[in-house]
Amino acid sequence: MAIKKEPRKSNLSVNRFLLHKYDRPGxxxxxxxxxxxxxxKFGPDDYIRDLRxxxxxxxxxxxxxxxxxxxxxxxxxxxxxxxxxxxxRVEEYLARIEQELKLVRTYLDRRNRLSQMHWxxxxxxxxxxxxxxxxxxxxxxxxxxxxxxELAIELDPRVTSGEQLTLLAGLGFNRVSLGVQDFxxxxxxxxxxxxxxxxxxxxxxxxxxxxxxxxxxDLIYGLPYQSTADFSRTVERVIxxxxxxxxxxxxxxxxxxxxxxxxxxxxxxxxxxxxYDLFATxxxxxxxxxxxxxxxxxxxxxxxxxxxxxxxGALHRNFMGYTPKVTSDMLSLGMSAISNINGCFAQNxxxxxxxxxxxxxxxxxxYRGWRLSRDDKIRQWVxxxxxxxxxxxxxxxxxxxxxxxxxxxxxxxNDLEEFINDGLxxxxxHRLLVKPEGRIFVRNIAMVFDIYLRKKQPGQKPLFSRTx
Length: 468
Prior knowledge:
about 475 residues; alpha/beta; Arc Repressor Mutant, subunit A; pyruvate-formate lyase- activating enzyme; nine-stranded mixed beta sheet; three-stranded antiparallel beta sheet; globular
């Protein structure tokens, strides 16, 4: 059911000079410190120690399970995924997931409650009915779910059947995320993902009929051959479906790191101004349709949990995206999975065979990580405040960390003058406020507080996508 349209002021007019000025490589800050800073000196023994420390806490956990398999790899994809056609390898991977789950559970002792679980990929619905049930029951045998737990899974409408959806609803999954990207056929051909409107509509309506309380759709702007007119039609179709949440991600073209992106025709990618216009078009349409803008690239119905969390200034962000649920620890399973446990990040090896071999030996597959210092935690909190709620409250900073903003961040505060002078940021006595015109540049603003970026030498090879 479509949302009733209500006029909204979008404040999307941005000086074109500023688009080019701030269009530079920068992190998306799904973590701070960012992954390139992590060290391979942090290994399995460190992870085990932190799991044991985390066992002393009685708060519920978040759980992420990575299913890396796809039938084919889309050209634009930046995920850690792989194409397999050998069913034996899939079964072996699920066995290793089960083994890893039981392994980490021994170190967590009696801490076994989950308030949030997310299955991502790859394509989780690459798994058949038997495999989906097996994986869920493995988790259920080890952990118990809170009564209001959020259970989410990513779906590819091209490979997801009605039987799979019925099973997932029966198991208790209540949120689903449908990958769409763009409905324009020319764009789909250019990115190697042919997905009809009818396929998406069929899966969406089935999810609605089965009673999923939240249906998310993922879009991407900045893809080859996109135009504002065509992208508008894609957005209008999504609004017509009545999606509860929509993510509008910026395409990150990094072919030097993701070799499958070499299949993308770089000459067909939109330039800085067109890319911004694509995003601005989406923002305008979603706001006019009554959605609330969440963070830098999400939209939600006014009654959605994300919108309510934003209104309270309690929106949070982790490796699963924006969330209203804040847990002290997140456990992640599978190839390349990243855990956030006891104030540290721990990442499993990104190679499928390597992951399965290590887990089979009875050891965690962690190959790098990072233990956050006090300064890391302060800067992490500041960056998350800006990225999630577009506000940095100096009083809350002081209450949480016993530091004065002006004393702790003298250089950063001085560097923010550039954003203030450009009309993107407002500084009052007790807070920083990202203005509507500055939200597209919130990554740039957050970068000011990144001590590791500040230490980088000019001219170093960029490791991140461009901010616009």
